[in-house]
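The protein record quoted in full:
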Amino acid sequence: MDNRYKPSKFSFFKIYDPKERIIAVAPFRDRVVHHALINVIEPVYDRIFIYDSYATRKNKGTHAAVRRAQQFMQKTQWYLKMDIKKYFASIDHDILMALIRRKIKDNKVYNLIDKIVRHPEFLRIGLPIGNLTSQFFANVYLNDFDHLIVENKPHIWYLRYMDDFVFFSKTRDRLNELKDSVTKLMFEKHKLSIKTKATLLNKNINGLPFLGALIYPSLIRIRTKNLKRSFSRVKSNESKYEKGLIYEDQFIHSSESIMAHIKSWNTYKKRVYVYG
């Protein structure tokens, strides 16, 4: 590395999935740099991530997170689900870089990360949605929090997928106390705000809505709105293929991936109802 690399400008566009998001797409040359960087630092961080952190990690992902949540529900009675308000847009660069400095001792690697994080179009705060580096560093940002919960909260089962996290316990009171302390900790240590309207404290038998699934101790279902959205994507891909906007192999691969995902859960009756 000769320290001459400078990030290029992003291309921005909106998606609705289902809520509006602004996606920042880096040019190809920058994406090559991002992937090369993650290939170098991923092994360093994968060793220090807790077992039950499931985003942007090999052999993890949404399916593994959902099944793990069900395992925790089978040994507890209550859950507390929380997520963070505008997570990517709220990540503080100074806090993130201080966390990264703890593990990345090579100055050239650290300086490259610093250039990517402190992109001219994202001053002081926020990571662009749509970049591999953003996803990875967003996972790093809450790693300390993960360890704090796992190592200091006995009788609490916990897992996280990016900014969605769930606590499980045999008692409601323990989770009720935890809710206030987590909200305070997120703000004081990470300058993050909990999305209070999305906070859910409930019994396991009533089902846990998590990562597009509705999880029960003995059953996992895909939520109806997510199922409809999945079929809409298949139909959209079909339309693009018929118009010549995508190749046949792209259409087949995307559609098979979507169908494989929804067939993973107990969705047969819903599939018949939604798709016919």
